[in-house]
Design a protein that fits this description.
There is one protein chain. The protein is α/β, with parallel strands linked by helices and 574 residues long. It has three domains: 277 residues, 3-Layer(aba) Sandwich (Rossmann fold), CATH 3.40.50; 125 residues, Rossmann fold, CATH 3.40.50.980; 97 residues, 2-Layer Sandwich (GMP Synthetase, Chain A, domain 3). It is 31% helix and 24% strand. The protein is built from 17 helices and 32 strands. A seven-stranded mixed β-sheet has the order 5-4-13-12-14-15-16, sandwiched between helices. Strand 26 and strand 27 form a beta hairpin. Helix 4 packs parallel to helix 5, helix 7 crosses helix 8 and helix 11 crosses helix 13.
Length: 574
C-alpha cells in the first residue's frame, strides 16, 4: 500500500489496496486533535470560569429565561447517575433518553455518562399527543440497543412504556426525572475510560434495520476539538440553538462544543422556531450571539417567512459564524439569505457550510476562517455547488470512483473519510458496519468532488431521504404508506427530489392506486400523509398515483426507484 502526497495541505494520506503515484482527490489535515479533557463527562465536572457565568440558558419568547448554573447542572447530573447506579446499571449499559430539549435532557445525558452507562437519545415530538404511537416507533431501537432503562416524562411513563421495556430492562425499567431528583447522591462515581462508548445515535425514524452510530468519548472529543479549533471558539462567544438536542448538530455541534469552548449557550425550543422563524433571528440580535447553526432548510424558511415587519430593529452584525450543515447546502439559499438579511447587518462571509455525518460524530470538513466558502459548478457545468471546506484536525477526506480508485480533481465519486472521529461501528449490527467501514475508511454513500483543496457535495449513492437534517430510510416510508387502504394492495416507492423553493429535499411518494380523479387524489394524499405522520413522523411533499403493476411488477425495487426518480425529474410523472 503506497502513500499519496496531498499537494494542498502537505499531508500524507493512505488509501486501502491501491498503489498511488498521482496527485488526486485527497485532502488531509496533519495536525492531530488535542482535547483539553479526557472524557465527555469532564466537560461539566471540570468546568472552570472566573466569572462563574451560567453555561446554559433556556429561552422561550413566552416566559422568562431559565439559566442553568453549573452547580445545579452538576447536582442534577450526579443524582441521575446515582439513580442509575442504585438500580444496578453499570459500564456499557444503555439508557434511552426520551425527553424534550431542556434541562432534564442535559442532566440525564451527563448523568448517564457519569454512571459509565451509554445514553441513547431518542426523538421527542414537538407536540406530544397519545404516547402509544411514539413508543411503538421506539420498538426497533429498543430491539437494537437493548437498553436497561428508559428515562422519560411522567405522561409517557405508563403501562405502554413499561411493556416495551419489559423484555430488555425488566420490571421498573422506566425512570422519570422526579425520581432521579429524589435520589441521594452516591458517595463515589465510577472511573470513565476514554475508550468507553459515550453515545449511540439513531439518526432515523423506525428502521427496518436499526443503525445506531456507536461513538466513544475519544471520537466525540476529537470532533469538537477540531470544530472549536477551526472556528476559533472561545469563552467570548455567545451561542444560540433551536436545533433539538437529540440531533447531532444540536447535541455535539452546539451543546458539547459550546461547553468545550466555555462559550455561553442559549437553547430555544424547536417549536418556537418552527412556528415563528423570525424569533430565532430576533434572539440572535437581542443576545448579540456570535454562533448559531441550522440545516439549509431553516435559512430558506427565514427567506420565505420573515417579513419586513419582523426585520424592524433587527441587527445581525454580531453573527460571525452561521453554520449550515446536516443536509445539502444550496447556493440559492445562501445567496437569498445573505441578500435579504444583509440589510440588517448579516455578512455573507459569516456563512460556514459544513460537511459531516453522524458516523463521523459530526463534522468532517469546514471552510477556514481566512478562506470563506466558494461556489463551483457540478459535473453538468451549470448547477452551482457550495464548497464545504477542508478537513478539520486529524481528518482525511478522499473521493473514490466506481472502480474503487482514487478520483482525480473534479471527478465525482463517493466521499470517504478517515480519522479519530469515525465511529466504532453500528451498535449490534456487524453486517451494516462492514458495508461502510473498510481499511479504516468510512464510506459515506455521499457523492462529491474536490477542487482547489475544497470538498463539494453533489448527491448521494445511498437511498436516503434527508428532511431538515434528519435521515429517513425509503423502505420505512414505503411500508407506512402501503398500509393505506386506498392503495388497494398496491405498492409505494419513496425518494428525495431537490427543492430550490424549500431549501431542502422534497419527499416524493409514488403510489400504485386507481385514485386518478382530482377528489380521489386529494383524499389519497390525506390518507397517505396521515399514515406517514403516525408511523414515521414525516409527511410527503408530493404523492403521485400511478396505475397498479409498475412497482409491484418490478424485479428490483432499487432499479424501479431510479427509473421513477428520473421520470419525476423530467416531468413525466405529475
Amino acid at each position: 500500500m503506497g502513500a499519496l502526497e496531498d499537494g494542498e495541505s502537505g499531508g500524507t494520506a493512505f488509501l486501502p489496496d491501491r498503489q498511488l503515484d498521482v496527485r488526486a482527490a485527497v485532502l488531509s489535515h496533519r495536525a492531530l486533535p488535542q482535547p483539553k479533557v479526557r472524557t465527555v463527562a469532564e466537560l461539566i465536572t471540570k468546568w472552570r470560569r472566573d466569572d462563574h457565568a451560567d453555561p446554559l440558558t433556556f429561552i422561550d419568547t413566552q416566559s422568562p429565561n431559565s439559566p442553568l448554573a453549573i452547580d445545579r447542572l452538576l447536582d442534577k447530573s450526579e443524582r441521575f447517575a446515582s439513580a442509575l447506579l442504585s438500580r444496578g446499571l453499570g459500564a456499557g449499559d444503555r439508557v434511552l433518553l426520551l425527553l424534550p430539549s431542556g434541562e432534564e435532557f442535559v442532566a440525564a445525558f451527563f448523568g448517564a455518562l457519569m454512571a459509565r452507562t451509554v445514553p441513547v437519545p431518542c426523538v421527542f415530538p414537538v407536540v406530544l399527543g397519545d404516547p402509544k404511537p411514539l413508543l411503538a416507533n421506539l420498538a426497533p431501537i429498543v430491539a437494537s440497543a437493548r437498553p436497561r432503562l428508559l428515562i422519560t416524562l411522567p405522561q409517557v411513563a405508563g403501562p405502554a412504556a413499561e411493556s416495551i421495556m419489559s423484555n430488555v430492562g425488566g420490571t421498573k425499567a422506566v425512570l422519570i426525572p422526579e425520581m432521579a431528583h429524589a435520589t441521594p447522591r452516591a458517595a463515589s462515581l465510577p472511573e470513565i475510560d476514554e475508550n468507553d462508548l459515550a453515545l449511540i445515535q439513531y439518526t432515523s425514524g423506525p428502521l427496518g434495520e436499526p443503525t445506531g452510530v456507536a461513538l466513544t468519548h475519544n471520537n466525540i472529543l476529537a470532533n469538537i476539538d477540531g470544530i472549536a479549533s477551526v472556528l476559533r471558539l472561545s469563552d467570548a462567544d455567545i451561542a444560540l440553538t433551536w436545533v433539538p438536542l437529540v440531533h447531532d448538530m444540536g447535541l455535539i455541534g452546539m451543546l458539547l462544543t459550546s461547553f468545550y469552548a466555555r462559550a455561553q449557550l442559549f437553547v430555544m425550543p424547536p417549536q418556537v422556531f418552527l412556528m415563528r422563524p423570525h424569533a430565532w433571528l430576533r434572539a440572535i440580535s437581542d443576545l448579540r450571539a456570535t454562533l448559531s447553526a441550522a440545516p439549509n432548510a431553516a435559512y430558506q424558511l427565514c427567506v420565505r417567512r420573515v417579513t419586513d415587519r419582523h426585520m424592524e430593529g433587527l441587527d445581525l452584525s454580531s453573527w460571525r459564524l452561521a453554520l449550515n450543515g446536516s443536509e445539502f447546502v444550496q447556493a440559492t439559499t445562501v445567496d437569498a439569505f445573505a441578500e435579504k438579511f444583509g440589510r440588517v447587518g448579516f455578512r455573507r462571509s459569516a456563512f460556514y457550510p459544513l460537511y459531516g455525518l453522524a458516523e463521523n460524530a459530526l463534522a468532517a470538513t469546514c471552510p477556514d476562517l481566512e478562506r470563506a466558502f466558494v461556489v463551483s459548478t457540478s459535473g453538468d457545468g451549470a448547477t452551482p455547488v457550495v464548497g464545504v471546506g477542508r478537513p478539520i484536525r486529524g481528518q482525511e477526506v478522499a473521493i473514490v470512483n466506481d472502480a474503487g480508485e482514487v478520483a482525480r480533481e473534479r471527478e465525482v465519486g463517493e466521499i470517504i473519510v478517515r480519522g479519530p472521529s469515525v465511529m466504532r461501528g453500528y451498535f449490534n449490527n456487524e453486517p451494516a458496519t462492514a458495508r461502510v467501514l473498510s481499511g479504516g475508511w468510512l464510506y459515506t454513500g455521499d457523492l462529491g468532488f474536490i477542487e482547489h483543496g475544497q470538498l463539494f457535495v453533489v448527491g448521494r449513492k445511498k437511498e436516503m431521504v434527508i428532511k431538515v437534517g434528519r435521515n429517513y430510510y425509503p423502505r420505512d416510508i414505503e411500508e407506512a404508506a402501503e398500509s393505506v387502504a386506498a392503495l388497494e394492495g398496491g405498492r409505494a416507492l419513496a425518494f428525495a427530489s431537490p427543492s430550490a423553493t424549500e431549501g431542502t429535499e422534497d419527499l416524493v411518494l409514488i403510489v400504485e392506486s386507481r385514485a386518478l380523479d382530482e377528489a380521489a387524489r386529494r383524499q389519497l394524499t390525506l390518507d397517505v400523509n396521515g399514515a406517514l405522520l403516525a408511523n414515521v413522523g414525516i409527511r410527503a411533499d408530493r404523492v403521485v398515483p400511478i396505475p397498479p403493476g409498475r412497482i409491484s411488477g418490478a424485479s428490483h425495487r432499487a432499479a424501479i426507484r431510479g427509473e421513477l426518480r428520473r421520470e419525476f425529474g423530467d416531468g413525466r410523472l405529475a
